[in-house]
């Protein structure tokens, strides 16, 4: 059983989809990553910051899932990071309505002493200089460092982002971000260029069209499970990342073969996340449910053509 | 070794992509389907019509591939069907520049006597009433009838199209066509509705995002092979269909498990088709090349999570 350290936001989200609307509910990249990783046998901690307005009930929820929250700083005088967004009818695009950084504006991450030797370091989507501070606090190099980022940081903080990318083993971004970062339309060529920036592994997420894992000229594909209804896509990418790193931390194996399994676990958990608003589905997801849907992933991709 | 009858266009195409431009070259749905099916051990025939302007050389090419062309009518006084189109930069969308129906306008298909007992009937994209005429000429019901169609027929000839759909076992359409036909956004729900129109199997093609095969509440997914370069997508969907029906005709097995293999073969051949203009790559494709890329499809999708 390995140690997993997650850096990222713990936040309030307010979400509007064609199917409904929420008030401020529990959200944030680290929250989704943590809840997904909690499906695996690993020692997991979150490093983040919240304000005095953040309900104790949410912290208790994370704790009850076995997540070490000693690295979540509570700034009594401050307000918690808040994001709100509205999805278009097809759920494939969304509009950000509000982003209030609040306590995130001057976040100085402090990794608890007992997690500075984590096996897996997961850098959730945040300002790259904050991600860099986490990397620098590690006492020894993690077995694997996984970076999630987005187009906003490519547009505004490319030099810092390039430095973080240069120090990570795996980058997870979506297809349009991969194209932006590499200036290549073909995802195969994009991955080749991003490899040269540092990461041995490049994961390109394509939403309902699955995810590609590139390594050394090889490629593995994890489909998204075709679902009757997608209710709310918020957090699906983070849940994917959480399943990915949670499985790696449990198995303590960072071979390409094991990373293939890890992206399947990530896709599997993401398929649950989108079934309800926010973290709702991930809060009550059981190991048995997750396991049984893995069988569907096998059925979805398995074929038996005999090669000569 | 089964018999495969292909109904569809044999035509001239003129194509413009970001990478170049062609004059009138060999094209047409039945041509692409036939060239793909020729990779398999089946007795294959094409039923179509061309004009007096159609080069003997093209007919000889089909014949040399082992395709029975006795059902390709040559109307000496007429001109061959001509389509020209221009692809946008990302190759995912295209604009039709010219459609000259010519001899296709009053095409009366005649299936050669020795193919009226075909095991597999492939109805390439054409006016549904022409497709219906082919169905009605079969002496006995084929083991499997596969229908390809497009949005144009949904817009203009829905009653006739519905009748054809009601008499086929498999329909292949792309994702937006599936949504249009079913009036459902979710592809899972779309497939359920289309099943109720007749077809036991629904294949939804998503271009570079692969293809889904739905049957009886189950679903199988064939990814598209991630390619460094896509040169010309023309005919990829027909090549997919050709690989699908060619494999079914060779194996004479229409079980769901064998249809899974068939969509992989279809995806595999389509990945070659797009590497060059028009039919160029499919003309010289060897069995060894096709076989070796199948191994990549295994590598692309195979994982070994043990389920309890």
UniProtKB/TrEMBL annotation, chains A, B:
<dbReference type="GO" id="GO:0016301">
    <property type="term" value="F:kinase activity"/>
</dbReference>
<feature type="domain" description="Carbohydrate kinase PfkB">
    <location>
        <begin position="22"/>
        <end position="281"/>
    </location>
</feature>
<dbReference type="InterPro" id="IPR002173">
    <property type="entry name" value="Carboh/pur_kinase_PfkB_CS"/>
</dbReference>
<keyword id="KW-0808">Transferase</keyword>
<dbReference type="GO" id="GO:0005829">
    <property type="term" value="C:cytosol"/>
</dbReference>
<dbReference type="InterPro" id="IPR011611">
    <property type="entry name" value="PfkB_dom"/>
</dbReference>
<keyword id="KW-0418">Kinase</keyword>
<dbReference type="InterPro" id="IPR029056">
    <property type="entry name" value="Ribokinase-like"/>
</dbReference>
<protein>
    <submittedName>
        <fullName>Sugar kinase</fullName>
    </submittedName>
</protein>
<dbReference type="Pfam" id="PF00294">
    <property type="entry name" value="PfkB"/>
</dbReference>
């Amino acid at each position: 059983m390995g140690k997993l350290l997650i850096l990222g936001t713990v936040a309030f989200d307010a979400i509007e989809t064609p199917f409904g609307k929420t008030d401020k509910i529990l959200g944030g990249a680290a929250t989704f990553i943590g809840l997904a990783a909690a499906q695996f046998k690993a020692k997991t901690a979150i490093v983040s910051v919240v304000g005095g307005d953040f309900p104790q009930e949410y912290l208790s929820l994370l704790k009850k899932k076995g997540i070490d929250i000693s690295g979540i700083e509570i700034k009594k005088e401050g307000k918690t990071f808040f994001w709100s967004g509205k999805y278009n009818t097809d759920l494939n695009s969304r509009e950000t309505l509000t982003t209030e950084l609040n306590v995130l504006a001057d976040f100085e991450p402090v990794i608890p002493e007992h997690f500075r030797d984590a096996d897996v370091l997961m850098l959730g989507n945040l300002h790259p200089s904050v991600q860099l501070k986490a990397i620098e606090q590690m006492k020894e190099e993690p077995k694997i460092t996984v970076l999630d980022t987005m187009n906003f940081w490519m547009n505004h903080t490319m030099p810092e982002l390039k430095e973080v990318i240069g120090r990570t083993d795996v980058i997870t971004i979506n297809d349009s971000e991969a194209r932006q970062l590499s200036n290549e339309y073909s995802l195969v060529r994009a991955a080749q260029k991003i490899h040269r920036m540092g990461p041995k592994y490049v994961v390109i997420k394509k939403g309902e069209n699955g995810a590609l894992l590139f390594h050394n000229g090889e490629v593995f594909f994890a489909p998204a499970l075709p679902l009757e209804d997608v209710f709310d896509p918020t957090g699906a990418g983070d849940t994917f990342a959480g399943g990915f790193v949670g499985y790696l931390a449990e198995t303590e194996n960072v071979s390409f073969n094991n990373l293939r399994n890890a992206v399947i676990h990530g896709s599997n958990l993401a398929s649950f996340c989108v079934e309800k608003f926010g973290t709702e589905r991930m809060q009550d997801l059981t190991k048995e449910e997750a396991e049984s849907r893995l069988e569907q992933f096998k059925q979805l991709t398995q074929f038996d053509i005999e090669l000569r």
